[in-house]
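Researcher: I'm comparing several assemblies side by side, and this is the next one on my list. It has 228 residues spread over two chains. Same procedure as the others: predict the full complex and return the structure.
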Amino acid sequence: EAQVTQNPRYLITVTGKKLTVTCSQNMNHEYMSWYRQDPGLGLRQIYYSMNVEVTDKGDVPEGYKVSRKEKRNFPLILESPSPNQTSLYFCASSFSPGTAYNEQFFGPGTRLTVL
Amino acid sequence: AQSVTQLDSHVSVSEGTPVLLRCNYSSSYSPSLFWYVQHPNKGLQLLLKYTSAATLVKGINGFEAEFKKSETSFHLTKPSAHMSDAAEYFCVVTGSYGQNFVFGPGTRLSVLP
């Protein structure tokens, strides 16, 4: 089944404890992206990657890191989480941005709580 | 830079009546536009998309949207609401290179029996 998977789905952690949220897609998509969803704000883009080893900042990149060493994986790293990073996180992928095949497919989400 | 305004944060309709969810966008380039739906405690599902082909776009579950460049709008409509349509709806714009997906704040649709 074609899908985007994220792990973990739920995570409670404490301030300053490094964590990684994994994202993987099995559709051979070039483009991957991370978003956070907060009430009343919709989804805001954190980072995106146009292809392997190519990443760029979205609208809210502060406090986050990403890497794209393989086409299928795009982990999100919080090196020193803070309570304002408590949010619902979505990973997404698309075949080819800027073309007719640019719709994004979303993972199920990761609910992160930072105490 | 692109931006999206969803004019209503909450819309309430009765089952069987029409649905109208409004979206206005700002983009420096010829945009691609999307509507996504998010049911409670679920991920996001693509309803429909516009990519400079026909201005009237048909999507899943009876939804459609019309791209109006002169009004910079991309409103979502459905002739007859169903209880299962109750969800959060997001309008999304992306630029000509597609690297930035900009979401609107969302419109919560309630469907009353």
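Model: For your comparison table: Chain A has no helices and eleven strands.
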